[in-house]
Amino acid sequence: MWPGTWRKLLAALNPVSGAALRAVKRLPCPAGKRDTIFALSSGHGKCGVAVIRTSGPASGAALRSLTGQQELPRPRAVALRRIHDPSSAETLDRGLVIWFPGPHSFTGEDCSELHVHGGPAVVGGVLQALGRLPGLRPADPGEFTKRAFQNGKLGLTEVEGLGDLIHAETEAQRRQALRQMEGELGQLYQRWSEKLTKALAHVEAFIDFSEDDNLEEGVLAQVDAAVRVLEEEVSGHLQDGRRGERLRGGVHVVIAGPTNAGKSSLLNLLCQRPAAIVSPIAGTTRDVVESALNIGGYPVVLSDTAGLRETQDIVEREGVSRARERLQRADVVLAVLAAVDVDPEPRCFADALRAVLPPGPPAQRAPCILVLNKADLLEEGRGGALLGACGEGALPPTCLLSCKTGEGVDSLLSLLGTQLEQMCGDPLAGSPSLTQARHRLHLTSCLGSLGRYHGYKSLDLVLAAEELRLARRHLGKITGRVSAEEILDIVFRDFCVGK
Q1: Which helix (DSSP H) or strand (DSSP E) does residue 301 occupy?
Q2: CA proximity to 55, closest of 123, 160, 142
Q3: In 10 A of CB 59, how many CB atoms?
Q4: What gap in Å lies between CA 158 and CA 226, rounded to an integer?
């Protein structure tokens, strides 16, 4: 029975091909077979201190060669050393060195760091000296992080979090990236993967061993319950309003409205620079003008668009088409109207907004803020009448603004900041959010496989098991962990198979 059982189990597991497995599974490489890599880890250009890092089996020898001392510094302790060119014995600099013996290092290998003065001549001299040492070569882009992943120091989600942290430009982005880099998102996906692994192992055991009376009763019922709970958790995770993705890539805020309403002036006011051409000639803006902003700690991609109107000018018509296409993809719309051109009646505002916003039910449109520009041209008391009319109708949040004087800009930023906070939330609160489109793709596929499991279970248990296996594989592609051995371990741990 044993040989046949093993064959059935291994065939049913149907692990991914060797090439695919190598792409997603952590495969530590023996340190002795690796090159030792080096690179400038701090930013390029003149700076006070530059950090040069090495990783690999020759790191210790390289540090000895450059410092001229046979004894390495104490692990993870800073030491002041003269740094020499081994080929000429010339002193290159006097700086700090740190020794990180593996596996207690960022990459899991022997590593060293040289903290030298950040002048181009110093940095260039040290890098050239390292390049002349045997067994060392310049690192490829991202190779230090790649080795950390291959040696099990970081998961794929943690690697992505590290990249996001390096590129974070706002406080909210930093918080989200740091939380992901510390492993919270990866731990969530790993916990789901472990649940799926156990469920799959129990189904496989039921297929092969149910006739031997070695299994407890109700095994499949327990699997069904576990799969339903997992479906609810994954579905809830996906229904997050794309908070994490918006926070990572920036919330797309589109300025739209009729010609000469002051859209380009608003862009320049918010950017605090002349990002767009401003002219009294209608139809000046012909293309989408973008600018990245930090509003209340949230990243914003602000887009100025062509004035919306019917025109015979072929170039302007293309600009209007692009404006409407950008409105379809907007996360937030700033609908700009000239306050002097609108009657203080809710019906007039509703008609003006209908001409700006995309067609369709309000619930399916992006949130909107109504900006009544050119408030400095209004007669006394008319501004209050306009705001009163907006309050009477079912209109979006509204503010009076003068791009010329800056009056009302604080009110607009407050309304926009509130909207951004509602859309992105607090990255430190609750469960960690999705941050990558690839996460959403694999989780959606995982959820589809879990749903098909229930459909196949009553027809063919082998097909149902295959759906669990596919669901688990999609989770593994997010974290970088795919292993068939884990399923076998659970089969023989949870059941008295072979006794």
Answers
A1: strand 298-304
A2: 142
A3: 28
A4: 27
In this structure, are residues 319 and 336 in contact, taking their beta carbons and an 8 Å threshold?
Answer: no
Per-residue pLDDT reduced to its tens digit, 204-261: 888 876 665 555 667 888 899 999 999 999 999 999 889 999 999 999 999 999 999 9
Contact between 402 and 373 (Cβ < 8 Å)? yes
DSSP-derived 3-state class of residue 110? coil
Q: Nearest Cα to 415, choosing from 433, 396, 394?
A: 396
Q: Which ranges constitute the DSSP H helices of 182-293?
A: 184-209, 219-238, 243-249, 263-271
Q: Which amino acid is at 245?
A: E
Mean pLDDT of the chain, nearest integer: 85
Q: What are phi and psi of 372, to 5 degrees?
A: -95, 95
Burial of 195 (0-12, 13-18, 19+ CB in 10 A): middle
Question: Computed over its alpha carbons, how large is the radius of gyration of the chain?
Answer: 30
What are the helix (H) ranges across 28-142?
59-67, 120-131
Q: Does residue 421 contact residue 296 with C-beta atoms inside 8 Å?
A: yes
For residue 110, which of 80, 137, 144, 87 has the smallest C-alpha distance? 144
* pLDDT category of residue 392 using cuts at 50, 70 and 90: confident
Strands annotated E in 120-191? 136-138
Q: List strand residue ranges (DSSP E) for 68-182, in order.
A: 79-84, 91-100, 111-118, 136-138
pLDDT at 17 over 70: no
- Three-state SS at 343: coil
Q: For 456, phi and psi rounded to 5 degrees?
A: -80, -20
What's the whole-model pTM score? 0.78
Give yes or no for a contact between 214 and 497, defined as CB atoms under 8 angstroms apart: yes
Separation of alpha carbons 128 and 480, rounded Å: 35
Give the strand pairing for 79-84 and 91-100.
antiparallel
Tell me how far apart the alpha carbons of residues 412 and 398 are, in angstroms, rounded to a whole number. 8
What is the DSSP code string of 323-371?
Answer: HHHHHHT-SEEEEEEEGGGS-SSHHHHHHHHHHHSPSS-GGGSPPEEEE
**From the CB of residue 381, how many other CB atoms can be counted at a distance below 10 Å?**
7
3-state SS, residue 494? helix
Q: Residue 360 phi/psi, 5° resolution?
A: 125, 170
Q: Is the bond preceding residue 73 a cis peptide, omega within 30 degrees?
A: no
Crossing angle of helices 461-479/184-209, nearest 10°? 160
More confident residue, 28 or 407: 407
* CA atoms of 131 and 127, how far apart (whole Å): 6
The C-alpha atoms of residue 282 and residue 264 are separated, in whole angstroms, by: 12
Q: Look up tokens 């800009």; give the residue.
A: 409
**Which amino acid belongs to residue 299?**
P
